[in-house]
Amino acid sequence: MSDPTDDHLLLRVAQLHFEQGLNQQEVASRLHLSRWQVARMLVRAKTRGIVRIEIVHPQARLHSMEKCLAAAFDLDDAVVVPAGASEQATRRLVAQACGDYLADRGKKLRTVAVSWGRTMGDVADQIASDWAGRPTVVQANGGLSRPGPGSVSGVVGMLAHRARGVPVFLPAPAIVESASLAAALRAEPVLEDVLGLARSADALVFSVGPAARDSVLVTSGFLTAEAIDAMVARGCVGDVLGRFLNADGVPVDSDLDSRTVGLDLDDIRAARLSIAVAAGSSKAEAARSVAGHGMCDVLITDEETASVLIET
Q1: Which residues does the UniProt record annotate as the domain Sugar-binding (predicted)?
Q2: Helices in the chain by DSSP H: which ranges?
């Protein structure tokens, strides 16, 4: 049992130092103690739980949750940040964490293959200048014709520009009318070269999307909301690189998958370093499918999504 008198003195020392901002010498003078005694008391105050230091910056990583998440899915690494006050705020926090993760490893990344979309647009918008040493940034899947922050030009172009690198675009739409047309496009030398470069990249970075009516592939006209509903009814949990998959990590619509241009799920599994970015708990089941079926080595997400993945 602790001495109440001792606890009272520890509390007083802690309040003067942490709440009132007095330095150790000032606390010592106020309480007629030595500076050495004050220093020891501050350590004891933390050990006894009288003082708890907490980092509350919105970009602070949650290391204990990261360890649990990596262990649960046998990942090489996991990054978990606090959720924001809104879906958009959470997406930007996760995107910032992805940008920081890439910047920490930038010197080793000569070629980076990337997807596009809202989350990846935020990554490109927030990543630090010179995050890598003049890398080649490769488009990993077919894109949209319209410009914008989440478009191919807004992601591939900006990521390359910020690191004074070289963008390599895949000149093809995300989805085409027939499997034969998709096969013909993939056989074109230009597309074949770009996809080969994406497959051999040092890292593949992609966002995880939910199977939702507001998907960029719906708002851009590639798919209808009814098509999404039909896939959900068949067990679809989300998409990666425009590939709609079920909880077992298998394409839910083989016809649609055959008409999709870009790296496929097996290519993702075969990547040298696969980094999945999932922002928001609506993407939890898609993230579970990706992480649970060999499609990412690193998962970057928020605490709410991580909690769903760990606890269920």
Answers
A1: 60-310
A2: 4-14, 24-31, 35-47, 63-73, 87-104, 118-126, 152, 158-162, 179-187, 189-199, 216-219, 225-233, 254-258, 265-270, 284-292, 303-311
Measured between alpha carbons, how far is 60 from 58 in angstroms, rounded to an integer?
6
For 5, 14, 112, the CA distances from 18, given in Å and listed in that order, are: 20, 6, 45
d(CA 108, CA 104): 9
Q: How is residue 209 written in tokens?
A: 């999307």
CATH 1.10.10.10, the chain: domain bounds: 4-47
Mention the CATH class of domain 4-47: mainly alpha
- In angstroms, the CA 243 to CA 16 distance is 58
Cα 55 to Cα 61: distance, rounded to the nearest angstrom? 9
Structure tokens at 143: 């894109």
194 and 168 Cβ atoms separated by less than 8 Å = yes
Residue 61: per-residue pLDDT: 73
- Indicate the pTM of the whole model: 0.82
Q: What is the pLDDT of residues 3-13, one digit of tens each?
A: 556 888 999 99
Per-residue pLDDT band for 1 (boundaries 50, 70, 90) equals: very low
